[in-house]
User: What shape does this take?
Amino acid sequence: MSTPIKSLKSAGGTYVCSTKALTLTIDTLTSKLQPSSPLRCPPPTSSSSPQSTTTTTQRNIRCLDTIESFSISPDGTLVLCRLNPKRSAIPKQNGSGGGRIIQLFSLLDPNWRGTITLDRSSDSSSTVEWCPDSRSIVSVDLDRGRAVVYR
Assistant: This one.
């Protein structure tokens, strides 16, 4: 059984992110004007100039576990990956940890990344979304009626 590929386009359309299993792929889109054909009649106007889009794979990132879902920040600069709770939710010997893992990646800076471990009691009923400022993330526990904002 293969894992389906999911993809999203960033705000402004500069990046396309896709996931399959443990891998987040970030592609950069660039547009280039096509030269006009000498046989074209009538001559093209500036508003109808043909364009082609070139896709260049920028990088492939291997996450800590299988990616369950992902989203791009409203400003199109960061990616949030919510990992599968079955394997990533392993508590440590001291009893800490064990919650769902969220990994963050920058579309602009390949060296920037972050990790958030959610409270393990909210694993099955929580949702994780970007806040409108594109720098904060909110986790909402639907069972307990609790929201936590991460900055």
Notes: Helices lie at 85-88. The first strand starts at residue 6 and ends at 9. The mean pLDDT is 79. The chain has one domain: 6-34+51-150.
